[in-house]
Amino acid sequence: MRALIVDDSRAMRRIVGRILEDVGYDVVEAADGQQAIERLEEMDEPLQLACVDWNMPVMDGLTFITEVRKRPEWRAITLMMVTTESEQDRIVRALAAGAHEYLIKPFTGEAMLEKLDLLGLLPTSTGS
Amino acid sequence: MTISPHAFTFVRELVRAESAIVLETGKEYLVESRLVPLARAAGHPSVDAYVADLSTRRTPAALKQVVEALTTNETSWFRDSDPFTALRQSVFPALAKTRPNRTLRVWAAACSSGQEPYSIVMTALDTPELAGWRVELLATDLSEEMLDRARTGEYSQLEVNRGLPATTMVRHFERAGLNWRINRSIRERVEFRQLNLTRPFPPMGRFDVVFLRNVLIYFDLPTKRDVLKRVRQVMAPDGHLFLGAAEMTMGVDDAWERVPAGRSSVYRIREDLKMEGSSCVL
For the Response regulatory domain, which residue ranges apply (chain A) (predicted)? Predict the structure, then answer.
């Protein structure tokens, strides 16, 4: 299982990365949406999950999600917005753009794993 | 079954030192309920005995376990999503075929702060076979404090992050200041009532589905047996009982049989013990 973490905060990438690695993901990181698109383009193995921050320089998370959804070859990627934005209309906008899930910061490791469980992306070997 | 003031003070000081969380007087019930599973797992007859042992040995791993048990307190929505998937995909559709009056009654027997009964209502709303049905939810808990919280239907940001699908959140919740409140249409479907599972149940009618998850673990064997027997008496003969993933009826009350339901299991009253028009058995 492979996951891409898109966040301009290195600390946040490390926190999310550790949670995902603990349940068996290989993690790839990008600091903004544009960099994330480049990572996806150079990737030769399939990617199951992208955790995407909303507010980032260069290309924000909503734009990134919209771009990913335009590309049929990336259709299998599950997109989860992970952000401090907590207004209801933001959640609606992210879902409408193509996000599958939405996790509001701050969150606990358990909360993230529960979201993965809902998405059927929690590797079963670790239980839930 | 109440924790002694001495044990409570020890736990309070430990949790405060390790996590800066203050357990005020009045939280004895919380401490007791969180520590019972740890006490049982360690082979102690009571929480007091467990705490006494803990305070003598002060094993770092055991102390850490206690702090964690008391500080990770958010209950999840759709906790262990499998039972709710089973409810939507197999249990509700099966019951929908056999209830001409288009009414189902569900009991959430240890509802804590309300996430479970509200999750059941939302699951019923997502079950196409129940469109236009009346689904009655009775939610009970030992703690009045929990029930008061549950009735408000208001949850913090951290709480709504736990296991609640984003689509459900935007459909069934609204912002209430910094919190989120479940919509009135869902709140109104749940009746909250105080109930002690270890005492005889008050009259409450028959249930088609009972959720009794992660509560038997707090009881000793005779109490578990007694609770399961009395639950049978309030179940419809073709009713479905959900227990926690680590709980089972086997060796406790053998009048139940375990039936697979999706990735989960439910318990049904054994075929040979059912009586026409009644679920009272032996």
Answer: 2-120
In the CATH hierarchy, which fold is given to the domain comprising A2-126? Rossmann fold (3.40.50)
Tell me if A93 sits within 8 A of A66, measured CB to CB: no
Question: What angle in degrees, to the nearest 10, is found between the helix axes of B47-57 and B28-41?
Answer: 80
B175 shares contact with chain A (CB less than 8 Å): yes
- Chain B contact for A126, CB < 8 A? no
Report yes or no: B254 at the A interface, CB cutoff 8 Å: no
Q: Phi-psi bin for B13: left (phi > 0), alpha (psi -120 to 50), beta? A: alpha
Model confidence pTM above 0.80: no
* Most B CBs within 10 Å, among A82, A114, A119, A122, to test the B interface: A114
Does B37 sit behind a cis peptide bond, omega within 30 degrees of 0 on the bond before it? no
- Phi, psi values for residue A2, rounded to 5°: -130, 140
CA distances from B184 to B134, B139, B154, B172 (A): 16, 16, 11, 9
Q: Do A104 and B157 touch (CB under 8 A)?
A: yes
Residues in chain A: 128
ipTM: 0.85
* Dihedral in degrees, nearest 10, Cα atoms A81, A86, A90, A94: 10
Closest CA to B235 of B216, B252, B217, B212: B212
* pLDDT tens-place string over residues B232-257: 999 999 999 999 877 888 888 999 99
Q: Does domain B81-273 have CATH number 3.30.1330.10?
A: no
